[in-house]
Amino acid sequence: MASTVSTSEPNDPELAQTAWDLEPLVDGEGEGGVQSRMEEALTRSQAFAERYAGKLDGLDGAGLGEAMAELAEIYELVGRAGSYAVLRFSTDTAAPENGALLQKVQEGETQIATTLLFFELEWAALSDERAEELLAAEGLDFCRHYLRNARRYREHLLTEPEEKILAEKALTGASAWSRLFEELTSAIEVELPGEQASEPVALDVALSKLMDADREVRRSTAEAVSAALAPGLRTRAFLFNTLLADKATDDRLRRYPSWLAARNLANEASDESVRALIEAVRGRFEVARRWYRLKARLLGLERLADYDRMAAVTADEVSYSFAEGRELVLDCYSSFSPELGALAKRFFDERWIDAPVRPAKRGGAFCASAVPTLHPYVLLNYTSQRRDVLTLAHELGHGVHFALAARQGVFHQGTPLTLAETASVFAETVVFGRLLAEDSSPASRLALLASNLEDTIATVFRQVAMNRFEELVHTERRERGELSVERFGELWAESQSELLGDSVEITDGYRSWWSYVPHFIGSPGYVYAYAYGQLLALSVYQRYEQEGPELVPRYLEMLATGGSKSPEELGQIVGIDLADPGFWDAGLDLVERQLTDAEVAAEASGRL
Ligand SMILES: [Zn+2]
């Protein structure tokens, strides 16, 4: 099925034609349809506020159901208008009318959100007894879990005037610092070596050179990046210190027991399960080190340095046209479950995918749930490599998950972050197994295994090491006060060398590389969710390996349940106990098996 073509720009008419139809979102009314939906949503949210503000306490169960149904319809209107604007912008970010429409819709969304803010506060302010009484009413299945979840913030919310002050002051406080950080880091320019005559490049462009096959290019690029990070380092450290203190104040006022507790609550993950995840991954850091030692041998080096970690081990020359990729992925979906296969096929037949690379199109890939009354949209930048086939499988996984859970409605279609990758990683793992099985050449198997391992190490191990860094700096700021630039560098090196051990040399320049990571600034505590989601999905896959087709109906049930139940309950549907600390090892075992496969393929390829 696969052909070995060297050209990266194949003449692929099916690929060129695979483009979205966004009109169903606005019933064919185009931009005017976006406008009218936003206007209607605003009018209805104002009417909603007039009707319900200050009166939530007086509702009965049926009244609450009526209010939630009206909210669902307002969200539906905003969802259709917002999806249209965001998705059209993604297909052409350079067109000024697309940017203008997006901006307009976002401003409208903020206005609507502020108008509706009272509802959640009043709902959380009800006594437990009163809330449970209301929730016991019939007809609330479409919003019961959502409403119960909103109340988990009860003890962490302040009074309405206090919340309003915090929300308003945040614009000139934490949000302003975050935006300044973004502006500072996006203005960083790197003077690449050997190209003095040419213009300096953006940080992302320089970082991508770390994949270069030539070690000297990588070494000198890393040196240039470190040099570019030096100016403004004190400013970025001050900025980070300020946000660490701001977070500490916030946690104190809102009575969160630890720096990570608020994030865990948002993720619907218990503090214990997160701790168990972190400890399980830390206990297996040797897996990452074993890979880096093998990688050093493949690159003909004694030992990797930090700037070698992203180097390409081997070029993957196997390519798949879009039609070949589609056939392979659909065949995998159908052999797993004909129902899922038929659903996946609709994405191709009904223009739910935008696949080709086009100028000014957003990079990467994603799946947007849009609204539950329509269908999800998948964006790809398909370049006919095997990596793209896996991405197609991954995004379609999100797609079928959203589509199956659509029956849960707007409040319950999506899952918390920690479960959001279940179907996507699962599908990707199935297709990965097929690609590997179809390939008998050790060199090309090695290429496939290497790229998969590097992704997993980045998602699981590297994110946990970053979480360790966050843990160290948040704790130190709270216990000892402001951190110096040098101290940030020390803690960064400490957390990274805990992961890398003696398998990778950490150079002095690398000590400042914490200072461009946006997650640390804008979304504290976020990074572990990548590891959580990936390992959870791999554990579900391992259950499938053990149970075979028996698991399929329960797996589909779990997907169709969407976010209407807690992560623990969703795990139980497929026989996974999230409270069992040993459960994380199942996913890690699978990664270790792939590593062993890679070692075998490396030996057989004659490259060692
Ligand atoms: Zn994903």
Into which percentage range does the β-strand content fall? under 5%
Query: What's the helical proportion of residues?
Result: 55-70%
> What is the total tally of β strands?
7
| Largest beta-sheet characterization | 3 strands, mixed
**Termini distance?**
30 Å
Low-confidence stretches: 1-9
Overall description:
Helix 8 (174-186) runs antiparallel to helix 11, helix 15 (322-336) packs antiparallel against helix 16 (338-349) and helix 18 (422-437) crosses helix 22. The radius of gyration is 25 Å and the shape is globular. It is mainly α and 608 residues long. It starts with 12 loop residues before the first helix and ends with a helix. The model is unreliable at 1-9 (pLDDT under 50). It has a 3-stranded mixed beta sheet, sandwiched between helices. It has helices at residues 13-17, 30-52, 61-91, 96-125, 128-135, 144-150, 160-172, 174-186, 203-208, 215-229, 233-253, 261-266, 271-282, 285-298, 322-336, 338-349, 386-405, 422-437, 442-480, 485-500, 518-522, 528-547, 552-561, 567-573, 584-604; strands spanning 189-190, 201-202, 304-305, 353-354, 366-368, 377-379, 504-505. The structure holds zinc ion (ZN). Residues 394, 398, 421, 424 line the site of zinc ion.
